[in-house]
Amino acid sequence: MINGKIDNFNAEHDFGFLKDDDKNKVFFHASAVINKRSKDIAIGQKATYQVAEGKKGLQAVKITILE
Predict the structure, then answer these.
(1) pLDDT band at residue 67, thresholds of 50, 70 and 90?
(2) What pLDDT is attached to residue 3?
(3) Measured between alpha carbons, how far is 38 from 40 in angstroms, rounded to an integer?
(4) Which of 35, 38, 66, 32 lies closest to 52, judged by CA?
(5) Coil/strand/helix, residue 55
(6) What does 3-14 look like in DSSP terms, one character per residue?
(7) H or E stretch including 36?
(8) Which pLDDT does position 18 carry in this prediction?
(9) Rounded to two decimals, what is the model's pTM?
(10) 40 forms bridges with which residues in the sheet?
(11) Which residue segments constitute the domains of the chain, with CATH numbers given?
């Protein structure tokens, strides 16, 4: 699992970016978040996640919001 934070989130379209401890960003869709609804996702929240190949490149999957 990778540790990171929500760096950006567009609640209208349910997608955003996570940033890991090394400042690498990865795309995510709110449907990949296991324990929160999209309306509860906020910039700066800590998260753990995995990275997998998506339709347009790497994306975060199996995301757990820690806060």
Answers:
(1) confident
(2) 97
(3) 5
(4) 32
(5) coil
(6) EEEEEEEETTTT
(7) none
(8) 98
(9) 0.91
(10) none
(11) 2-65 (2.40.50.140)
Supply the mean pLDDT for the chain: 95
Provide, rounded to the nearest whole percent, the portion of the chain with pLDDT above 90: 88
Distance, in Å, from the CA atom of 34 to the CA atom of 56, rounded to the nearest integer, reads 22
Tokens for 33?
Answer: 């978040």
Quick: pLDDT tens for 11-59. 999 999 999 999 999 999 999 999 999 899 999 999 999 999 988 899 9
Q: Which amino acid is at 45?
A: Q
Scored b (16 or more CB within 10 A) or e, 29-67 reads bbebbeebebeebeeebebbbebeeeeeeebbbebebee
Q: Residue type for 18, please?
A: L
